[in-house]
């Protein structure tokens, strides 16, 4: 199952499933993974459920908690009790789908209804964030889409402020998510400025923005006030953040920590090796 389909199904409480490779192990040191007491804790980490769909949620939650991970992204409401059992939170509550978003006024009623329901559920559970999307261009000019997004997001910003839940508009690359409008940091920041709410920010996906624009650390430093959440993955390939890819994740994490970011960094890479060992290694790598 793709992440695109997951978002729709998770929002309605359906079970999550996704492809994640189960393969050879890594170094013995990474096998057991770090524990909560072993982490520096400058970066609060979460993990995206959809990347680990072949692992039962109970197992993933137990292992994640043992590694020092604080929460899990994109988990449907019906599975939240499993997270709570292991002291985890849903760090990014799903809502509407990627392609049909706030950049078209005709979508506003539907998106507002779904997002409002997600905000209410997140607030009741004391979860911090709800994801949302711009939608695809479909020939629309970017400035028109930005204005439409702002108009739509203003309709739910008040509820988000009241409930102390942050709406996170996700930045995605439009090479894989073809025609997606919110594919540049500057565009997303402009939408946030137009809305003018401390509860409407960006989900800055490091992998996606490396593919679109690069200059990751400078961009984060310059726009940290508009970022509510991060996602990780190695580029190219969206796999592990190891020596086979181009992003310097320890340096990126230090920049995030030094900026006093108090949100979450979600591990959203697709494991090419043993998933739990790869996750443990990523947690260590990002614990700067």
Could you characterize what this model shows?
The chain is an alpha/beta fold. It has a single domain, classed as TIM Barrel, CATH 3.20.20. 41% of the residues lie in helices and 13% in strands. The protein has helices at residues 3-11, 28-32, 57-67, 80-85, 108-125, 142-163, 185-195, 206-212, 216-223, 249-258, 275-286, and strands at 44-48, 71-73, 89-92, 129-132, 166-170, 200-205, 227-232, 264-267. The protein has an eight-stranded parallel sheet with strand order 3-2-1-8-7-6-5-4. Strand 5 (166-170), helix 7 and strand 6 form a beta-alpha-beta unit. Helix 3 packs parallel to helix 11, helix 5 (108-125) runs parallel beside helix 6 (142-163) and helix 9 runs parallel beside helix 10 (249-258). The longest helix is centred in the middle third of the chain and has 22 residues, at 142-163. The two termini are 33 Å apart.
